[in-house]
Specification:
There is one protein chain. By secondary structure, this protein is mainly alpha-helical. It contains seven helices and three strands. It has a domain of 71 residues: Winged helix-like DNA-binding domain superfamily/Winged helix DNA-binding domain (Arc Repressor Mutant, subunit A, Orthogonal Bundle).
C-alpha cells in the first residue's frame, strides 16, 4: 500500500488564504490550457469537418478500426449520454457505422467507413501543427504528457479511496 503523500504547504510567509487565489489553482491552469487546446483544435480541425470530441473518437478508431461503444466510452472517459450524439453525428457524416454485435446483440459496435479511414491521411497534419503551436520540443511534450498521465492516475486513485 502506498503511503498517503503529505499535502504541499504554502510558501514560507504566504498566508493560507493565498491558497484560494484563482491563479494559484492547478485545476484552473489545467482548465485554461484545455480551453486553449480546444480553441486551437477547432481551427485546425475545421478543414477536416470534425470537432475535437469527434477527433478523439476517430483517433481511437484509427488505432482499432472497430470497437464496442462501451469500450470506446471507457477509453475516452465519456458516458453514453455524451458519446451517443457524437457517434450519431460521425455516422451522419459517413465516417463511422454503428451496428449490433453479431456475438452479443446487446452490444453496439462502431466501425470506420472507407471515408473514415481516408480522413486519417488528412489528420496526419494535426499533431505537428499542435506541437508547433505549443512551442515545446518533442521531449517537453512527452514529459508533459507523462506527468499529466501520472496526475490523472493519482487523481483517479484519490477518488477511489
Amino acid at each position: 500500500m502506498t503511503p498517503t503523500p503529505t499535502p504541499p504547504q504554502p510558501a514560507a510567509g504566504a498566508p493560507e488564504e493565498n491558497w484560494l487565489l484563482l491563479n494559484g489553482q492547478i485545476c484552473f491552469s489545467l482548465h485554461s490550457a484545455a480551453r486553449a487546446f480546444n480553441s486551437l483544435y477547432r481551427v485546425i480541425l475545421k478543414d477536416l469537418g470534425i470537432t475535437y470530441p469527434q477527433y478523439l473518437v476517430m483517433l481511437v478508431l484509427w488505432e482499432r478500426d472497430e470497437l464496442p461503444v462501451k469500450q470506446l466510452g471507457e477509453q475516452l472517459r465519456l458516458d453514453s449520454g455524451t458519446l451517443s450524439p457524437l457517434l450519431k453525428r460521425l455516422e451522419a457524416a459517413g465516417l463511422v457505422r454503428r451496428e449490433r454485435s453479431a456475438r452479443d446483440e446487446r452490444s453496439v459496435e462502431v466501425r470506420l467507413t472507407e471515408q473514415g479511414r481516408a480522413l486519417r491521411e488528412q489528420a496526419l497534419q494535426v499533431p505537428p501543427r499542435i506541437a508547433t503551436a505549443t512551442g515545446f520540443d518533442i521531449a517537453e511534450i512527452n514529459d508533459l504528457r507523462t506527468r499529466l498521465d501520472t496526475l490523472t492516475a493519482q487523481l483517479d486513485a484519490a477518488v477511489d479511496n
